[in-house]
Amino acid sequence: MEDLTIDNVADKVAKRPLPLFNPRDPDFIRDPYPTYHRLRRQSPLLWDPAGNYWLATSYDVCSEILRDRRFGRRYEAHIENIYRRGMMDQTAFRLMAMTMLMQEPPNHARLRGLVTEAFSARRVVLMRQRIRTLVGDLLDQLVPRGTMDVIRDFAHVLPVTVICDMLGVPAEDTRLFHETTISTRMLDPVPMNESELREANAMFEEQGAYFTNLFERRRRDPEDDLITALVQVGDGGGLTDDELLANVWLLFAAGHETTRNLIGNGLLALHRNPGQLARLQLDPSLIPSAVTELLRYDSPVQFVGRTALEDTDIAGTTIAEGQVVLCLVGAANRDPAKFGEPDLLDFGRSNNRPLSFGGGIHFCLGAQLTQIEGQEAFVGILSRLPGMRLHDADEPSWQPNFAIHGLKTLMASWDPA
After folding, report:
1. How far apart are CA 152 and CA 158, in angstroms?
2. What are the boundaries of the signal sequence (predicted)?
3. Which residues does residue 308 pair with via DSSP β-bridges, in sequence order?
């Protein structure tokens, strides 16, 4: 990586003013909510001169910005703000820019429209039985062992298998993805170092090689799956090769990251709140509302970025065209103006509408799928492993990321049947 000059980026960062908070601080990653409360008490909208972005800290302001079409995505400018000009030549940034996640209309509507039917409410509801079967099969393997890493052995495997099914990854290849890790550091507003960027590039290149091969297989041997449909659209001129690769990667990554962290963060929250755990065990009908509350209480996605497309007045403040706003949805979900006793886990919470899936035209396409996977996962674990114990619940190991909040590992044991 001859001309990367990440060291120059580090020098640039070192000369900036002190930030309002440090999103790389291990204490913040472990528990960001005290920091969010401190920031919100200052203002619902704060300028962070170190990051060169605004921080939206309240529910109402985050919700307004996410739905306001005067805000959108300007991914290349965002990357240049964090790093320097020329960084879009890096594989990770070049392909990320082509995903529907980073596009604006009309390209966003074109790309999202190609996959919307696969995630329609009707089709996702029909998948529930398949998800229930997968949960049962996984637990059949795990229960006799008496121990597992919840993240590696269950929370990762379940959603990876589901999204591989939807995409059309052959069953014999799905196990390859059970061992695959996704680098989400590129989503953070703090620049990656050279090693992290190389890891992100390698991830795209390795998975790109696999999916490119699978695209060719589906051209020769079409199946009733999403990849076949997207390949046919691409061959008809509806997608470039890079757009096809970028958006299949996005579906794979987004299709399991949120669910994995919902399950991991949720189980940790349950074991730290034994009263709510007992309540759920006594009344499994609370599972759907419990999943919504767990998404609010410790959101897998902690912020969503937007750029002002024109000068815009929000909350008595003018955000200039081109300025970036980090909508801190983790903070919004703990806003006491919206949620009574927000730091309390409460499965009886009424009118519970967290911002964990974003909002507006970029609202998460897989929101309903994630909720169903979470519901079936918690039903399975609570019914099959009622005496499960977490061994590192006091000091668990967290992924060192800000945008995506989730655990590295979560060891559990039980008395095998």
Report:
1. 10
2. none
3. 71
Question: 245-283 burial, b for 16+ CB within 10 Å, e for fewer?
Answer: bbbbbbbbbbbbbbbbbbbbbbbbbbeebeebbebbeee
Q: Which of 83, 75, 77, 79 is nearest to 10 (CA)?
A: 83
Q: What are the tens digits of pLDDT across the range 28-62?
A: 999 999 999 999 999 999 999 988 899 999 999 99
* Length of the chain measured in residues: 417
All residues at 6 or more sequence positions from 393 whose CB lies less than 8 Å from its CB, including other chains: 268, 271, 272, 410
pTM (global) more than 0.90 = yes
Q: Which of 108, 128, 174, 64 is nearest to 368 (CA)?
A: 128
In the chain, the amino acid numbered 14 is: A
Q: CA 251, CA 364: separation in Å to the nearest integer?
A: 11
Amino acid 373 reads: E
Summary mean pLDDT of the chain: 91
> Whose structure tokens read 């398949």?
130
Give residue-wise pLDDT tens across range 69-125. 999 998 888 888 788 778 898 998 999 999 999 999 999 999 999 888 888 888 889
Residue at token pair 């091969």: 213
Peptide bond into 106 cis (omega under 30): yes
DSSP code of 401?
Answer: -
Q: Strand, helix or coil at 51?
A: coil
User: Domain residue spans in the chain?
Assistant: 6-413
CATH of domain 6-413: 1.10.630.10
The span from the CA of 335 to the CA of 36, in Å, is 9
Pairing of strands 411-413, 53-56: unpaired
Residue 194: Cβ within 10 Å count: 14
